[in-house]
Specification:
3-stranded antiparallel sheet; 252 residues; globular; binds pantoate; 6-stranded parallel sheet; 2 domains; Rossmann fold; alpha/beta; Pantoate--beta-alanine Ligase, Chain: A,domain 2
Length: 252
């Protein structure tokens, strides 16, 4: 496995790749079983499997959230090596944003729900960095988890609208035995909070209405941002002990 830190180094490597298929798993590190599932699928479906690790400042609207985001680079690289990844791109902010946040992708109308309302600038930051990564890595396929369904949908539509020749592949959410969705932010929860957090999945799947789901989640001590239904799915975002968790399930 080779690790690249600059766009220049990566572009030299990219020109040398003769393979027919390249897959990318973009991440912000703090890798967990959910990422491992994306990487395994990427590994199976492509001749060259690439992962990127970059904690993207542009998608954080709260500087405290950015500074406490878990960073576990050595462990992440060891996991990616075990999963037989070929290349890992680990740029710093100056590499990906040489002019600062001078140019960005903006979202309109239909994305102005949920994350777009509660985390202003989040989806713009995600789309901007993903577009940069797709242009740099030039993968045939890029893999995203359904846990971040609104992100996945927005990235897919953005890639289509900008005629990016990369297939955006959706992968199912990976859950623990309690139903809690795997997330890098789970690492910030105490054991007790982690047990309480299982209520998110329970409420999403069992409450008869979004309002009743909100009540169930609040009863466990969460401060709820939203419980809403869109695109045939039910979504929730809520804070527990200052940690923001999101989840969603299809409506049956
Ligand atoms: O889902 C994430 O980890 C990030 O939002 C992504 C897609 C890597 C962009 O920074």
């Amino acid at each position: 496995m080779q690790v690249w830190h600059t766009a220049g180094e990566w572009m030299d490597r990219r020109r040398a790749i003769g393979a027919d298929s390249i897959g990318l798993v973009p991440t912000m590190g703090a890798l967990h079983r959910g990422h491992a599932a994306l990487v395994e699928r990427c590994r199976r479906e492509n001749e060259v499997a690439v992962a990127s690790i970059f904690v993207n400042p542009a998608q954080f609207n709260d500087p405290r959230d950015l500074s406490r985001y878990p960073r576990t680079l050595e462990k992440d690289l060891a996991l990616l090596e075990d999963l037989a990844v070929d290349d890992v791109f680990v740029p710093n902010a100056a590499e990906l944003y040489p002019r600062g946040y001078a140019f960005r992708v903006e979202a309109a109308r239909e994305t102005k729900v949920m994350e777009a309302v509660h985390r202003p600038g989040f989806l713009e930051g995600v789309m901007t960095v993903v577009l940069k990564l797709l242009n740099l890595i030039r993968p045939g396929r890029a893999y995203f988890g359904e846990k971040d369904f609104q992100q996945l949908k927005t990235v897919r539509e953005m890639a289509e609208d900008f005629f990016v020749p990369t297939e955006i592949v959706a992968c199912p959410t990976v859950r623990g035995s309690s139903g809690l969705a795997e997330s890098s932010r789970n690492a910030l929860l105490s054991n007790a909070a982690r047990q309480k957090a299982a209520v998110l999945f329970r409420a999403l799947t069992t409450a008869p209405s979004p309002q009743e789901a909100r009540t169930m989640i609040e009863q466990q001590g969460f401060a709820v941002d939203y419980v809403e239904e869109h695109w045939g799915r039910r979504f929730a975002a809520a804070f527990l002990d200052g940690v923001r968790l999101i989840d969603n399930v299809p409506l049956s």
